[in-house]
Amino acid sequence: MLTIDCLEIFKALSNEKRLEILQWLKEPHRYFSCADGMDFEKYGVCVGLIQKQSGLTQSTVSEYLAILKKAGLVESVRIGQWTYYKRNEKVFKELSRIIKTNI
Amino acid sequence: MLTIDCLEIFKALSNEKRLEILQWLKEPHRYFSCADGMDFEKYGVCVGLIQKQSGLTQSTVSEYLAILKKAGLVESVRIGQWTYYKRNEKVFKELSRIIKTNI
DNA sequence: TTGGGATATCGAGATAATCCGATATATCTT
DNA sequence: AAGATATATCGGATTATCTCGATATCCCAA
User: I need a surface site. Which of A33, A53, B48, B95 has the fewest CB within 10 A?
Assistant: First the structure.
């Protein structure tokens, strides 16, 4: 069962940088270099890479990712000292459906 | 050709009352009484009715409708001293499509 | 177990959104 | 032309968001 809070999602999407981050996470191989053979598909992208790409401070990126996560748009997994974030495509599909039929 | 500014749309949708207003405009007959035989389908709903339903002040409602209009989510027509607002369903469909494929 | 690196949280100043009352504008009626 | 009604715009107080630097937490390696 997938319940989503549209207001919270819209607020999360109301920021240029957060929209950018979601674009990057959509095609990690295109936007991030994967020197050490990290499997983007499996775990996502770690905060440090996103931070470098964004030009924002580490704390801001961490908070933005938390906002996206709280809205359900991304999910994260901690592996060692790294936290990997990836998109939760189900939520995007559901949001698309709700906008078409309910909003 | 239909170009939409997703960031502006998400900001417009990041407000509980504005989401409510969009719901009301989706089914005017359900939420507004139509004593004088006004054709909601054709022109939409006038600001005064929306204002009464909302519990907000006239100025706030007017501003909120302007925000929704600037984002393209509603369109308006002035008839005499009344301005009627109705949803622009094409924009909702397009937003739904973009979220599914591009966001 | 201590030092270092990755991430999260905290506190704060700057900027933007919220929402109101007052006022301006546009239109209709008389 | 004047008054009344509907809507839009303006100015401002309050609240929320943005974004940072500083600090705390968590985990790995030596």
Answer: A33
Whether any strand D atom is under 7 angstroms from the Cβ of B36: the reply reads: no
**Interval B53-66: pLDDT, tens:** 999 999 999 999 99
Work out if A33's Cβ lies within 7 angstroms of strand D.
no
Other Cβ atoms closer than 10 A to A38: 19
- Using CB atoms, pick whichever of B19, B22, B99 lies closest to residue A96: B99
pLDDT in tens, A14-59: 999 999 999 999 999 999 986 655 679 889 999 999 999 999 999 9
Cα→Cα distances B99→A58, B32, B73, B96, Å? 27, 31, 15, 5
